[in-house]
Design goal:
single chain, about 400 residues, alpha+beta, Beta Polymerase, domain 2, Hydrophobic Seed Protein, seven-stranded mixed beta sheet
């Protein structure tokens, strides 16, 4: 019995349609690896098949499934079953490559298909009946936490230079012990190839790397090997990054990729702008990094001042600045003042300014610049007073701001 079919009737239908009558289909890659090492069952499952894309499409239609030609040029058809998508890719062999993309031809050899993949732990197959097929030594490597290129590391990297970053990302996610020496040496030899990659691909890989469980020590290895600066466009602050990761863990927070990127590479607004271009960050990601510039709240501020800071700045920016300042402070991870600041950032309910234009129109003000200025004065007075909600306090604020 295939363990990945439990609770997945759609997957069972896809495999039943593609496996048999002269063709074979197997689950491949991350889903098999994660199941093997006890990481649980992934929601995304990839399937490899001897059938051509045309045959996959024909069989899917015949089985009442929905095929979508999401990557025909690479041999990939997404088959929708029971509302779930499954990427089905025909066995391939690289015909030629320029280090960014490969031209492939379809094949029928499972060994050739395995040997063109990146790491041994990613080239594992699981048949419809549940047989684990390992053609490159991936089972031993996955269980040992060893991220190892298939065959010659230089050849694998030359096929796609993004594999340099994938090496570190997979080591941060699945590795145990030091990085594979042959893989690291090949990454260093081929680092010039990083400049040939699209910025979007580098961004996607980097943001996955920095939230992986062993990201701090992996980034330290990258930095020592001279591979971090070419990715970031400048020196990375790995010690601050490592402390932030420890703070997030100590506070029970999920790792945040944008905040971690800020800790690693942003000291001022110019850094944020440079990263936006270098990594093709989204507008929201770039704006969040730019917001890191400026003063940060500290435990030395009174609670009233901290809350005023939080109200003016917004929760996300306040939390980002506070946690990164905590990381840069060198304070112990259990230092009470910083932890209290983090608690305010996470838990204090932001109040809503209770006064409206109508409150001032009732005092005789007329619409226009003077009304806007009075509202602004009133909000500042309300913040300074500690966000009162009582009627008497609000009347006093209106009275003072309306003058």
């Amino acid at each position: 019995m295939n363990p990945l079919l439990e609770g997945r009737p759609g997957l069972a239908r896809v495999l039943a349609a593609l496996d048999g009558a002269g063709e074979e289909a197997r689950i491949v890659g991350g889903a098999v690896r994660d199941w093997l090492i006890g990481r649980g069952l992934r929601s995304d499952i990839d399937i490899a098949t001897t059938a051509t894309p045309d045959e996959v499409t024909r069989r899917a239609h015949a089985a009442g499934l929905k095929p979508v030609p999401t990557g025909i040029e690479h041999g990939t058809v997404t088959v929708i079953a029971q509302g779930e998508p499954y990427e089905v890719t025909t066995l391939r062999e690289d015909a030629e490559t320029d280090g960014r993309r490969a031209r492939v031809v379809f094949g029928r050899s499972w060994r050739h298909d395995a040997e063109r993949r990146d790491f041994t732990m990613n080239a594992l197959y699981l048949t419809r009946e549940g047989e684990l097929v390992d053609l490159v030594g991936g089972v031993a490597d996955a269980r040992a936490g060893r991220v190892r290129f298939i065959g010659d590391p230089d050849v694998r990297i030359a096929e796609d230079y993004l594999r340099i970053l994938r090496l570190f990302r997979f080591h941060a996610a699945f590795g145990r012990g030091p990085l594979d020496e042959a893989a690291l040496a090949a990454a260093i030899r081929n680092r010039a190839g990083l400049d040939r990659l699209s910025r979007e691909r580098v961004r996607a890989e980097l943001l996955k790397l920095i939230v992986a469980p062993r990201a701090p020590e992996t980034l330290a290895t990258m930095d020592a090997a001279g591979l971090l600066a070419p990715v970031l466009g400048g020196a990375g602050d790995v010690p601050t990054f490592a402390r932030l990761a420890g703070i997030e863990a100590g506070l029970g927070m999920a790792p945040d990729p944008v905040r971690r990127l800020g800790a690693l590479a942003v000291r001022g607004e110019a850094d944020a702008l440079a990263l936006r271009e270098r990594l093709r960050l989204s507008n929201s990601e770039a704006a969040r990094l730019a917001a890191l510039a400026g003063p940060a709240p500290t435990p030395g501020m009174c609670e009233k001042g901290q809350k005023a800071f939080l109200y003016r700045m917004g929760r996300e920016t306040f939390q980002d600045r506070a946690l990164i300042a905590f990381a840069r402070s060198g304070a112990a991870l259990d230092e009470e003042g910083w932890r209290a600041l983090a608690s305010i950032a996470a838990d204090w309910p932001l109040p809503e300014f209770p006064l409206k234009a109508a409150d001032f129109l009732a005092r005789g003000l007329t619409p226009g610049p003077a009304l806007g200025a009075a509202l602004k004065r009133a909000e500042e007075a309300w913040i300074e007073a500690g966000f009162p909600m009582g009627e008497a306090a609000l009347e006093g604020i209106i009275e003072g701001a309306a003058r």
